[in-house]
Amino acid sequence: MSAGVPDRTGRARRAVRGARPVRAPRLVGAPRLVRGPRAVRGPRPDAVPALIASACTLVGLLDIAAGVFPRFRHSRMHTVAEVLPGALGPFAAALSLSTGVLLLLLAHGLRRRKRRAWRAAVVLLPAGAVAQFAYRHSLIGVAISLALLAPLLRHRSEFEALPDPRSRWRALANFVLMGAGSLVLGLVIVSVHANRMIGSPSLADRITHVLYGLFGFEGPLDYTGPTSWTVAVSLGALGLLTAITTIYLAFRPEHPAARLTEDDEARLRALLDKHGGRDSLGHFALRRDKGVVFSPSGKAAVTYRVVSGVMLASGDPVGDVEAWPGAIERFMDEAKAHSWTPAVMGCSETGGEVWTRETGLDALELGDEAVVDVADFSLAGRAMRNVRQMVKRIERAGYETRVRRVRDLSEGELDRIRRATEDWRGTDTERGFSMALGRIGDPADGDCLIATAHKADVPGIGAEPGHYAEPGPYGDLKAVLHFVPWGTDGVSLDLMRRDRSADPGMNELLIVAALQAAPRLGIERVSLNFAMFRAALARGEKIGAGPVLRVWRGLLVFLSRWFQIESLYKFNAKFRPRWEPRFVVYGSSRDLPRIGLAAMQAEGFVSLALPRLLRRRRTAPRPCAHAVAERGVRAA
User: Fold this and answer.
1) Is 505 helix (H, G, I), strand (E, B) or coil?
2) pLDDT grade, residue 404 (50/70/90)?
3) Are 317 and 350 in contact (CB under 8 A)?
């Protein structure tokens, strides 16, 4: 048993090894309640949201089909369509389309137990029942609506999730998506009545008719009988629905994403001062685009970011290990309150054991962190020949290195380094979440380490002796490495940036310079990059590797064309580090794709944001309003 890690069950903890899930120990011998058959008891309360969401999806699709396809009501599905809200009547198509689209929109929120989706469904279903009786005088249709309403009211306690972080820019996204969907659906509505269409209009005429109809105007097409009125009402209903939902999203109150406040940051720094040496990723908890939850004692905390409905924590909890369970419990409470999917990226083996034991989640090995012990590092020997030769070659080319604490740099030099790293980034978005701080030179980060490479100006081509080329925008600066503190005797690599015109090998040069300067700075260990799936890459290239492992390695090598998987592993391996495994903690296997996508968004590899020209100018960050309210209630 690892020292200092509480074990409430008194059992030896299972090691979190390989790709096998690790589950929390379960209590045995507890008495079982005698229950009746499942058919009599009905579904479990926790399964009701998913069942209701599925029912809303099915009814919504059938409503849309009944409103779009005239023959649908006269096919074998006539019996089902007969009892759908608004399936027949003078405004049958418009009512079916509106009801179907709204139910489809609500289904996702109901599945995620959102309170506002529940309220909307409770209002919508009786409205559908009233429409059934008013237009069709159908008691069966009324019964169907009320039958779906009954479990909603009975299990209303299952729909308590608070709203997600959001902004009014979602109104624009809704307008684009709903507008495109309405255009496609309108083309289908116009085209299914081809046998009653007068003439043979072109596709352009049909699109024009749909666009006019969405805005409530009469288009160029015409039909025989009452079909023109039916098509016009249906298109008008789609346009009205798009306008109403967009206006609602535009004027509803904002719920900004949780941000690190000054008080939160001060408390986290106090915890890192006492326990920061435990985890190399601890300082990255100070990213100011993360939220934080503290344990009841205030001796531990978990930082997180919410991405696409996934509540992502990174690294181990910050603070005293004895207080980790309290912080983890608060984290899970926050995830449950908002119906977010909880996940942890890059926790250590000890952290994975505590997370799985306290929450019942599973852990999967994600990769390895490269850690170099300064006392054991040397450029001597055959294994370091390539690095040694590269460093010597670059030094002969006229490059020199400087390794300093941030507090020892002048403001002018810090500003030059900031501008250089921004310009050399190469992407529109800053990458990094679990192992990136996202800033350089902040006055509060004086203990951070900066290694820079410089090369003096050289004579310009064809210039007279004594005349030199114009210096670049950043002077003689050619490359930058930034490290964050890891306790009092270590640093963890944050970012690597270099001028594209500089000679290859800048990163190797600066890492060697940092390792050689470490003793005079009191640094005994340096954490380098994280290598995903390192074990699979290392074992897959060895003799005797099985076919499954070789195929898995081949897939990773293929993906390395777009993601730095193999290249980071080989780069880190140059420095002969020791490998520390890191894990992802998740709820169930079906959540892994969603968690993976959210992690890629958080790390900056996948961007679903608006184009730069449409982005709103950022204002000063402020905490999530309902999150603050929740914490205030709990504290009281």
Assistant:
1) coil
2) very high
3) no
Span of 203-217, 239-253, 390-404 with lowest mean pLDDT: 239-253
pLDDT digits (tens, 9 = 90+) for 284-326: 999 988 889 999 999 999 999 888 888 999 889 999 999 999 9
Determine the pLDDT at residue 29: 38
- CB distance 453 to 499 below 8 Å: no
Alpha helices for 73-194 (secondary structure H): 78-82, 92-111, 115-131, 139-154, 169-192
| SS3 sequence of 432-474 | CCCCCCCCCCCHHHCCCEEEEEEECCCCCCCCCCCCCCCCECC
* Residue ranges in 253-396 assigned as alpha helix (H): 262-275, 324-338, 349-359, 385-396
CA distances 146 to 141, 316, 409, 478, Å, are 9, 48, 70, 70
Q: Which two tokens stand for residue 441?
A: 């030179």
The residue among 554, 524, 563 whose CA lies nearest residue 536 is: 554
The H helix count followed by the E strand count for the chain is: 20, 12
Whole-number pLDDT of residue 67? 63
| Residue 26 confidence (pLDDT) | 40
Q: Coil, strand, or helix at residue 247?
A: helix
Q: What is the pLDDT of residue 246?
A: 79
Dihedral sign computed on CA atoms, order 476, 477, 479, 483: positive
Residue whose C-alpha is closest to residue 300's, from 279, 336, 328, 273: 328
Report the candidate in 85, 60, 189, 93 with the shortest Cα–Cα distance to residue 141: 85
Q: What is the pLDDT of residue 178?
A: 81
Cα(166)–Cα(162) distance, rounded to whole angstroms?
Answer: 12
Q: Which residues pair with 305 in a beta bridge?
A: 312
Judge whether 82 and 73 are in contact, CB under 8 Å: yes
Pairing of strands 310-314, 341-347: parallel
DSSP state of 253: P
Q: Cβ distance 363 to 17 under 8 Å?
A: no
- Percent over 70 (pLDDT), the chain: 73
Query: Is residue 589 a contact partner of residue 361, using CB atoms and an 8 Å limit?
Result: no
